Amino acid sequence: MWAVTQDVSSAALANIKDSAHLNQNVQIRSPGYCTSSLDKLPDKIILKIFSYLPHCEIGRLARVCRKWRMIACDSRLWTHVSLRPEVSGLHVSSLETLLALISMRFGPSLRYIELPIELITHTVLHELANKCVNLSSMLLDFSTAMQLHDFNDLHSFPTKLRTMCICLSEVIFMEGFMRKIYNFINGLEVLHLIGTYEKAVEDEEEEIYEVVNIHKLKSAIPNLRVVNLFGINFVDDSHVESLSSNCIQLECLALNFCVKFTGSVLRVLFNRCKRLRSLLLQHTNLQDEHLMNVDWEKTSLSELDITASELSSECLINVLCRIPALRYLSAGQQDGFTDVVLKEYMDKGNTKQLIAIDLDRNENLSEEMLLKFLKQQAFNCKGLQLSGIPHLTEQFWITIIPMLKNIKFVECKKK
């Protein structure tokens, strides 16, 4: 009996020794312990992670450690920069800081930049022209300006710009600045001029100023393909006629919320700009006779937005049935868009290429006619907007949704 006990004790001691030897080679970790960390990732992986973050977050991460600061300063993270605090959260406190950033951090990598009014000076623009030779897109926000900087010493400006956006002020005349940059922007292909429509609605009695001279501007930008004049209260048909006389390569014209535009120049526009494919006229003051006078059959139009333009049923039928092949139609908020209009469009118009349609708040369309139209268009339809039509029932959507095999976007709120 004593021998058996001794054998067991010997075996136990041997097992303990083997376990101790094993523990020397294997470190036991607690279940929540992670053996990997960001410190062990290669710099190029951390750089890739940072590239998905907004710049304000990258700025915070730069304070974590020296390694992260070096990565955060990599110019590859700063190819598209917005210095408007209300947009990006970034605020540059002084011109000296911005000039240093342009030189050391942005450099040739910079492709796009947004500048608020306080940073738009001749010194900054000179530095961008000299150091950021690949800059192709720029936004200049003058919307809050009460006074411009002195641009008499502005002698250079980025010359490779393909896209430029200028947010206009209500009261500041831009001619002094624009005159200085005319010689540098003849390569522009896309121009956005953003007006102050919302402010004008609030202050209807205030006088409207023509703060930028479009008649002079058009001579400096002959290569424009896209023009967006949004919410500019002084823009009328004469400005569009002036643009069309020099910008014959125009492919897209957007005049949304330009309430003085009536459409009287549309016939001339299409005769001059044979490549025009997209026409966006939301919330304009279109007149029936002007639209019916256009030779729509001879156009190359594929995108049309006439939302809230208060056209008659007769005019809508006349226009829609003569356009050769629309791919996108936005005709919402139109009391004149009735069942008769939709039926005529189906019977006499070309809807075969229509892939997106917006009939928002067209309450004069019946459920039956919409159902008939969508059954015909369902296979091609990728975008559908039918919000604000309260009489569309649940059964309507139960019927139509299974037919929309290729749909990407649907808006159906009753509002």
UniProtKB/TrEMBL annotation:
<dbReference type="InterPro" id="IPR032675">
    <property type="entry name" value="LRR_dom_sf"/>
</dbReference>
<dbReference type="Pfam" id="PF12937">
    <property type="entry name" value="F-box-like"/>
</dbReference>
<protein>
    <submittedName>
        <fullName>F-box/LRR-repeat protein 7-like protein</fullName>
    </submittedName>
</protein>
<dbReference type="InterPro" id="IPR001810">
    <property type="entry name" value="F-box_dom"/>
</dbReference>
<dbReference type="InterPro" id="IPR036047">
    <property type="entry name" value="F-box-like_dom_sf"/>
</dbReference>
<dbReference type="GO" id="GO:0031398">
    <property type="term" value="P:positive regulation of protein ubiquitination"/>
</dbReference>
